[in-house]
Amino acid sequence: MTSFHGLLAYPITPLTPADAPDLDVLAALVGGAARAGVDGVVVLASSGAGVTLAPDERDAVVRAAVAGGPAAGAPRVPVHVAVSGTSTREVVARARAARDAGADGLVLAPFSYLPLDEDEVVAVFEAVASAVDLPVCYYNRSVQTAYDVTPGALARLARTTTVAAVKDPASTPARPAGRVAALRAATEGLGVSVGLSGDPAIVGGAEAADAWHTGLAALVPEEYVALRRARASGAEPGAHVVTWLRDLTEVLAGLRPVSGFHALANLLGVPTAPPRGPSLPVPPDGVARLREVVARRAPTP
């Protein structure tokens, strides 16, 4: 059911005041994104703070997301699960648990205490492919992991593992122009979806790509769907949509990433406690800046 194409929304994991995942709110987020027209969701990634959750919490989140759309009367969209971990054993265990909970695909950023080299990266994906028969999106977190996947390495992964997509940063400093084209050329004929992440760059007009991966789209899916559809068709999106999304991403860029999404969620009527520590809540001045932008959001039909 999954292709890792189109607009992929990465919801937060809402938390109750007792610091437990709020599965009802999560299901509503998934359902709302599906009704708005996103092409898939990814849970437990950076936006969803999956590394802070225990195995039973992760399992419950995946099951809630899988059931969330249909339960809310929304279309069923593919649900992908981020399974990154600090060891291959942990990654494989999370991949198996995601499969058993109904995941359609996996998203994996390979990392370790020490930066990995290409052979070590490939070995992680080979281990996942041996354990779980699900398509995998390579999450290229080059700044955080100190390993930037090359076009040749991506092609190697596509040939020898279940890697079917890449999520590449659109806004990394000194990222060369033509990066999407280079990744596509290296994987031609291998069925790899080349996607981009980074809301400021995407909203600002990044290179055309097979997919957009964004946490913000899970909170404001109507605007993001309108932007994606307009750009994909070569049309000009509504000026208010672009201006509003640019203003919103500018404010969020000045806040801690997961904390900013939780604060924005509350302002949009999505109840959640702040993310688990060590992330700290957004300070009052940051909340005020977000509130000012949210107040300028146009009513949705």
UniProtKB/TrEMBL annotation:
<comment type="similarity">
    <text>Belongs to the DapA family.</text>
</comment>
<protein>
    <submittedName>
        <fullName>Dihydrodipicolinate synthase family protein</fullName>
    </submittedName>
</protein>
<dbReference type="InterPro" id="IPR002220">
    <property type="entry name" value="DapA-like"/>
</dbReference>
<dbReference type="InterPro" id="IPR013785">
    <property type="entry name" value="Aldolase_TIM"/>
</dbReference>
<keyword id="KW-0456">Lyase</keyword>
<dbReference type="Pfam" id="PF00701">
    <property type="entry name" value="DHDPS"/>
</dbReference>
<feature type="active site" description="Schiff-base intermediate with substrate">
    <location>
        <position position="167"/>
    </location>
</feature>
<feature type="active site" description="Proton donor/acceptor">
    <location>
        <position position="139"/>
    </location>
</feature>
<dbReference type="GO" id="GO:0008840">
    <property type="term" value="F:4-hydroxy-tetrahydrodipicolinate synthase activity"/>
</dbReference>
